[in-house]
Amino acid sequence: MADADKTQFNLIIGAGSGIAGALITALASEEPDSGLLLVSRKPVDLPESASVPVHQFRCDYSEAGIAQLGQDLSPWYGRIRLVVISTGILHNDSIKPEKRAEDLNMNNMLEVLRINTVIPTLFLMKLLPALRGEQPCRVFTLSARVGSIADNHKGGWTSYRASKAALNMVIKTAAVEYARRAPNVKLIAFHPGTVDTALSKPFQRSVPEGKLFKPDFVANRLLTIAADLPIDGDASYLDWAGKSIVW
Ligand SMILES: NC(=O)c1ccc[n+]([C@@H]2O[C@H](COP(=O)([O-])OP(=O)(O)OC[C@H]3O[C@@H](n4cnc5c(N)ncnc54)[C@H](OP(=O)(O)O)[C@@H]3O)[C@@H](O)[C@H]2O)c1
């Protein structure tokens, strides 16, 4: 479907993630008047029923690649109503969340910080020109409750916790500049709960009954929260229920 001049768009970054996949499905069916801009390292499968305008962008998440994406989005400047930044890692073949001091490894920690903190930071900074203007826009960056400094009573997962705490600080800091330069934007650090995706798979056994969410439930929660959230010039740190988390 071709873009009408006034079509608004939802921009999903890290569109290959489990949570992003559910968001894409929900947006394609529940917001038929908005198009989708999808950013990922690889092509993203679309729901068969999708009849909204969709534009896919490949990005390697390098600094140059993210800057280029900011420019490639110029046809949609001022028309983006929702941004979700979903990149994040908890484990891979060589990285495991640390349980004790001896588990810490510098290269692994730097890789977690790169993916969970630096990449979303670059997107937040490079997207600012795209989000200036009259169009109200909510920007959700996928954080986690374990990034709360005040709420850390259990310890462990040093790199993941640190990466999300640093991400939260980036969001708080960026909100000050956005309030001045792109005042119709609201920035949110979002905790989706524990969601049944590849990221949480090895850790699901310890999740209490009823607390492992399906991605489509979380996608719908995020969209419901986005619809009601006032644009107030400050960052919010919210969970899936819409409740504030202490920074
Ligand atoms: N699942 C949970 O229980 C849970 C809980 C709290 C917070 N979160 C947060 O929610 C977000 C999405 O999580 P998810 O559960 O949907 O995870 P997921 O399915 O594992 O998706 C991972 C995401 O991270 C990106 N990514 C993975 N490895 C990467 C690498 N080496 N370099 C650059 N990017 C990489 C992927 O981007 P591509 O699109 O390019 O593949 C994808 O967007 C994450 O930030 C996560 O920390 C999840």
TrEMBL record:
<protein>
    <recommendedName>
        <fullName>Short-chain dehydrogenase</fullName>
    </recommendedName>
</protein>
<dbReference type="GO" id="GO:0016491">
    <property type="term" value="F:oxidoreductase activity"/>
</dbReference>
<dbReference type="InterPro" id="IPR051468">
    <property type="entry name" value="Fungal_SecMetab_SDRs"/>
</dbReference>
<dbReference type="InterPro" id="IPR002347">
    <property type="entry name" value="SDR_fam"/>
</dbReference>
<dbReference type="GO" id="GO:0005737">
    <property type="term" value="C:cytoplasm"/>
</dbReference>
<dbReference type="Pfam" id="PF00106">
    <property type="entry name" value="adh_short"/>
</dbReference>
<dbReference type="InterPro" id="IPR036291">
    <property type="entry name" value="NAD(P)-bd_dom_sf"/>
</dbReference>
